[in-house]
Amino acid sequence: MSALTDDTLPVTPRAMRDEMIVFAAMAVLLGLVPMTGIYPFFVMQALCFALLACAFNLLIGYGGLLSFGHAMFLGTAGYVTAHLLKVGKIDFPFWYSSGMWHWMTIPLPPLTPELGILGGTLAAAMLGVITGYISIRRQGIYFSMITLALSQLLYFIYLQTPFTHGEDGIQGIPQGHLFGIFNLAKPTVLYYVVLAGFLGGFLVIYRTINSPFGEVLKAIRENEPRAISLGYKTDQYKLLAFILSGTLAGFAGSLKVFVAQNASLTDVHWTMSGEIVLMTLVGGLGTVFGPVVGAFVIIAMQQYLAGFGQWVTVIQGVIFVACVLAFRRGVIGEIAHYFRRSL
Amino acid sequence: MQALYAQLLVGLINGSFYALLSLGLAVIFGMLNIINFAHGALYMMGAFCAYFLLNVTGMGYWWALIIAPIAVGIFGMILERTMLQWLTGLDHLYGLLLTFGIALIVQGVFQNYFGSSGLPYAIPDYPQIGDCSPNAPQGAICFRGLQGGMNLGFMFLPIYRGWVVIFSLVVCIATWFLIEKTRLGAYLRAATENPTLVRAFGINVPRMITLTYGLGVGLAALAGVLSAPINQVRPLMGADLIIVVFAVVVIGGMGSIMGSIITGFALGVIEGLTKYFYPEASNTVVFVLMVLVLLIKPTGLTGRAA
Q: What is the Cβ-side half-sphere exposure of residue B276, based on CA atoms within 13 angstroms?
């Protein structure tokens, strides 16, 4: 693999200190949001997408794998969480004969939020195992096409299976009490729960990229044959990174269910996968904080330009083109490059 | 059985579009090392070009078949000169991202002006061959352009559909011949292997790259014109199609021109058969096959390791 991030600086204690300062500042600023009167729904939504983009960035920025199907984790976890919270009962087809499916039912009551999140995240993790096993068999551009095709396959499955309610999606999802204590129907409580989820997920990713495992991933990104010749089983590393990325993306999808209170086909569509790529590209591929900034920029843009209809798509396309042609480092990447720091 | 043959024909038609599009993708990838995500959008532009030619200038289908691929091909060459050429030497993924952006722009602009619904485009009714007057004797032979159909004994064949399959096949084979058997094709294949060396022989490789992109894009536009009377003209007609074509490309590999053509047609037929035997799976079968191929032979059916 050739380098996507051409000027990655070595991880030094100074770089890590810089990053911890920025992280602390980010946590404090985000913690103060409910007191400022900024619309919390917007920030919560942006936080879910920020975690999603960070999870995506783990693959592209540190593993060199461009997944064009990350919406499948967002959508799958969202559907599973929404279903567990609202219905609970699980039906799945196990046998097909004489033109119809036979269903097996696991009778479950509607579940509590923590179990719903756990279920959604686990579903995404399982999906990550399966799709990762298939897609890491090819590299580079083929990997992107395979992930895109797999997410399209899931899109059609969700369009047809009964539990997703097709075009309508799952609506009116009860928010409930997290751990029986925190009332998620209160916007402020929900905000801090989502923020805690985001910061937790972010730290997991940060820890991963600064671990020996993360170093091996970077080695694979820079030169896979050399990593193989050094004795690393690169396929296993890539698969693990894919599963981790998918799981965290799924966690973001589960959190998003509580914010949006619905789960629909838009979350599984390829346009969503494209938006995830765009967020990370705008913020800076392979930067620690870039995806967060990118997610806020893109979500804010959608919010303010909502009245312009399809022109939003055109503007997104223009941003894509501009980023690739002239602005490949992204916002955070440019800042980091200017100050010769790693961010 | 009638229904089975009808679905097989639909499958062959989808297969011709897969073949034309994956052929273009393979040709472009060979020279530019770019996966052209804008291919679906350019296919759509081909169909719209036919629509405009008919409704603005009054030029019909046969003109569109010539003009649309050239017009869209020129548009593609402008894209290549102004944007894609700057990506030389960068990671392949940037090409995918750039062309994805171009696809969003093109589709978004068309959606703004034409919404998401389909615009009708009629099957051409000229030239008329045979006796088509109202008082023609019964059983007189009459062809109104490509309208109508004929009874083959075992099935009713709409003429336009038969035309699409045969014409696409001819175009595919002509492209194969151009690339594999002519001098120009030999330059092209040589430039794919080693552009620096070919330049040293005095051949203008950048111009060849531009023309290749134009050729690939022109094939997509041609598929768009062919599909206009069948699928209607819609801004998003290429958006979902291109993802299926990506799966076709993953299955077939991009190493061989003939491989892309055969895989395209074969997958179309398999899709048609699925529509008959288990219609629920008809829009997923290509993806499922892709998964199976990846599990059994990860390099694709004709591809080399990539």
A: 16
Q: How many CB atoms lie within 10 A of CB B103?
A: 25
Q: Nearest CA to A209 among A223, A198, A219?
A: A219
Selected residues 136-155 of chain B with any CB under 8 Å from a CB in chain A: none
Q: Residue A149 in contact with residue A267, Cβ under 8 Å?
A: no
Of B263, B274, B266, B275, give the one whose Cα is nearest residue B303: B263
CA A73 to chain centroid, in Å, comes to 7
Q: Do B112 and A311 count as a contact with CB atoms less than 8 A apart?
A: yes
Provide the chain B residues 234-263 that lie in CB contact (below 8 A) with chain A.
Answer: 239-240, 243-244, 246-247, 249-250
Structure tokens at B68: 């649309």
For chain B, strand residue ranges (E) read 128-130, 142-144, 149-151, 156-158
Nearest to B108 among A4, A68, A313 (CB): A313
Give the pLDDT confidence of A274-287 residue by residue, as tens digits.
Answer: 999 999 999 988 88
Question: Could you count the other beta carbons within 10 Å of the beta carbon of residue B202?
Answer: 6
Q: If DSSP codes are grouped into helix, strand and coil, which group holds residue A95?
A: strand
Closest chain B residue by Cα to residue A158: B284
Sign of CA dihedral B55, B57, B58, B62: negative
Q: How far is A254 from chain B (nearest CA, A)?
A: 26
Q: Does the ipTM surpass 0.85?
A: yes
Task: Tell me if the pTM is above 0.80.
Answer: yes
Give A103-165 as a DSSP string. EEEE--PPPPHHHHHHHHHHHHHHHHHHHHHHHTTS-HHHHHHHHHHHHHHHHHHHHHSGGGT
Contacts of B124 (CB under 8 A, 6+ apart): B60, B61, B62, B145, B146, B147
- Which chain B residues contact residue A298 at CB under 8 A? none
Which of chain A's residues have a Cβ under 8 Å away from the Cβ of B240?
152
B306 to A156: CB separation less than 8 angstroms, yes or no: no
Q: What digits encode the pLDDT tens for the residues B250-278?
A: 888 777 888 889 999 999 999 999 988 88
